[in-house]
Design a protein that fits this description.
Blueprint lengths: L1 H30 L1 E3 L5 E7 L8 E2 L9 E3 L4 E6 L3 E11 L5 E12 L2 H8 L3 H5 L1 H12 L4 H6 L4 H19 L3 E7 L7 H48 L3 H19 L3 E2 L7 E2 L3
Antiparallel strand pairs: 1-4, 2-3, 2-5, 6-7, 7-8, 9-10
């Protein structure tokens, strides 16, 4: 009996550390998370150890599958597909002093998510790209006039090209791991006063065009009548008739044409009525 009671404390001393170790392992496993990126995305891991080791951005992003991560590790999702960024720009002055509004678009694609987060942070577009994009747009718009930008739109291709070249150069010099896909200034919107003036001008131009077309039609009709009169006069001369005789001849022809189709009666001066009985 004494031996049995003496063995029990030793077993307890062995059991308690084992149980504590098992419990610690289970707690650590349940506290861990998993990083699983969606298609076209990468997850950047930012390690923040509580006691040991060095924190910071992990050099290897999670791009496929999933990995276990410590509970203190921060995950940052980064889109790896081309992304569109819209920028509303108000009152960009043209070379002739007219303020125009633009809804510009820039299309960018991240090439290195780890370097992007490590050096430029999560708000990299607003902090490092948007302002430069706006400056380049302003600089290019002021080199063109209002008509070629907002009315004819012939300047927009040049603006897109110059802004695109400037943005590519800026991204390269700034060291941003981002590739420029494309830039478009969008449609230029002039002030309401300019729009109203353009509408009035268009209406005036349309009225002038209508009047010009009406004059052309009247001139054509006049020319046709003159030509017909000249032809009749030439015909009269060929018959050796005076104007009065020619008019009488035309009247007789008209009456003949009418009477060939209908029963008719002619009264000439004080003469008695002549009735066509056919």
């Amino acid at each position: 009996m004494q031996q049995s009671s003496g063995a029990s404390p030793r077993r307890k001393r062995l059991w308690i550390p084992a149980a504590a170790t098992t419990l610690a392992v289970l707690l650590s496993l349940t506290a861990c998370g998993r990083a699983t990126p969606d298609a076209g995305h990468a997850i950047v891991l930012v390690e923040k150890p509580l006691f040991f080791g060095h924190g910071g951005v992990d050099s290897v992003p999670v791009q496929t599958g999933s990995v276990w991560i410590a509970p203190t590790t921060q995950t940052i999702d980064v889109s790896m597909v081309p992304e569109r960024h819209d920028l509303r720009l108000n009152d960009l002055m043209t070379s002739d002093g007219v303020p125009l509004d633009f809804d510009a678009i820039i299309l960018l694609q991240v090439t290195d998510p780890v370097a992007l987060i490590a050096h430029f942070g999560t708000d990299w577009y607003h902090n490092n790209v948007e302002r430069e994009f706006a400056i380049l747009m302003r600089d290019q718009v002021k080199t063109h006039g209002m008509n070629e930008t907002a009315i004819a739109s012939t300047a927009l291709d040049s603006i897109d090209q110059k802004v695109g070249e400037g943005m590519s150069r800026y991204l390269r010099e700034a060291g941003l791991p981002v590739r420029l896909i494309g830039v478009t200034a969008g449609k230029a919107n002039p002030p309401d006063a300019v729009k109203s003036q353009r509408i009035e001008t268009a209406q005036q131009e349309q009225r002038a065009l209508t009047e010009a077309q009406t004059k052309i039609a009247e001139d054509a009709r006049k020319a046709a009548e003159t030509s017909r009169a000249e032809a009749d006069n030439a015909y009269r001369n060929s018959l050796g008739l005076s104007p009065e005789q020619f008019i009488e001849l035309q009247r007789i022809k008209m009456q003949e044409n009418v009477c060939l189709r209908h029963t008719c009666t002619f009264i000439s001066g004080n003469a008695s009525a002549l009735v066509n009985t056919r």
